[in-house]
Amino acid sequence: MRKGNLMDVRDDIKVLDATIRDGGLCNNFEFTDEFVSNLYKMNVKCGVDYMEFGYRASKKMFKESDFGKWKFCNEADLRAIVGDNPTDLKIAVMADVGRCDYKTDFIPKSESVIDMVRVACYIHQIPAAIEMIEHFHELGYETTCNIMAISQVNTEQILQALKMLSDSHVDVIYLVDSFGSLYPENASELARLYLSTVEGTGKKIGFHAHNNQNLAFANTIETLSYGVSYLDATVQGMGRGAGNCAMELLLGFLKNPKYNFYDLLKFIEKYMIPLKEQGVVWGYDLQYMFTGQLNLHPREAIAFTTEKRKDYSEFYKALLDNV
């Protein structure tokens, strides 16, 4: 059953801007402080609820000199942008299972400007994700579990994972269309499965879309219509490969007067257009459509893009050999 209608204001909706985190995968997290600072100010003015600044990645596994600072989201770097964050906007970072030193790299929430830690994992990593979630909960943070590549997971595994998470202290469980392979019909079916499984637990459900088939926005508002309440978006859809749900589409759709996108448009003019002109590449293209349709990880399509290939038919034929 759908929740509300096109004229309703849903007070349970929370919008999260993932431009720096997912978009950082397009430019190695090499955003200027001016860009990040003005994106933060724009999100505050536009009524966005959360801003994800990037990853808190392991400095043992990844060299700081090889990436921009938002691969690591050091406390000092965050505070250089937001100070004590005297706004309604909450600050989020992502921690990947197996790629972070969560026991040593996170201080208690009372000492940090971070509000939420988003734990990203694959289905076989759920036990490790729950261990991280409980640690972050003990430190005082809001938490999410973002189960990636869900389009390749069977229903029995999904149900088992959701039941395990229902018994944890996680606040939000994210349905993540990592490969951009979902359509509104099966995205909404999965959303209803998530919602019904956690019903009565107080857990919220979120949705993170990729735009391989030009369906990121459609899938986002379809899952929203059934009760999903945490919605990820990025400015102009900037994100890995084909990108994500575009923030301007989402804010233009939501009827809550707290959201507006005039300042978002100004930000696009001043910062996003120059970023594209500098050669940073993201967004829908045929190679991403192929991997989305075939339910494959976009890594080969990303390589195709990096190599500036245009032999789409040969690339598609090669992908078919791997299905």
Describe the largest sheet: 8 strands, parallel, barrel
The CATH class of the largest domain: Alpha Beta
**Proportion of helical residues:** 40-55%
How do the helices and strands follow one another from N- to C-terminus? EHHEHEHEHEHEHEHEHHHHH
Tell me the CATH topology of the largest domain.
TIM Barrel
Q: Give the termini separation.
A: 35 Å
* Strand-pairing-aware structural class: alpha/beta
**Count of runs of 4 or more consecutive helical residues:** 13
Under the CATH scheme, the architecture of the largest domain is: Alpha-Beta Barrel
Q: Going by CATH, what is the homologous superfamily of the largest domain? A: Aldolase class I
Unreliably modeled segments? none
Rg, Cα atoms, Å: 19 Å
Describe the 3D structure.
It is a single chain. The chain is an alpha/beta fold and 323 residues long. The protein has two domains: 14-277, Alpha-Beta Barrel (TIM Barrel), CATH 3.20.20; 286-321, no CATH class. Helices cover 41% and strands 13% of the residues. The chain has helices at residues 19-27, 33-46, 75-82, 102-105, 126-139, 155-166, 184-197, 216-225, 247-253, 262-277, 286-293, 299-306, 312-321; strands at 14-17, 50-55, 90-96, 116-121, 142-147, 172-176, 204-208, 230-233. Helix 11 (286-293) runs parallel beside helix 13. The model has no long low-confidence stretch (mean pLDDT 97).
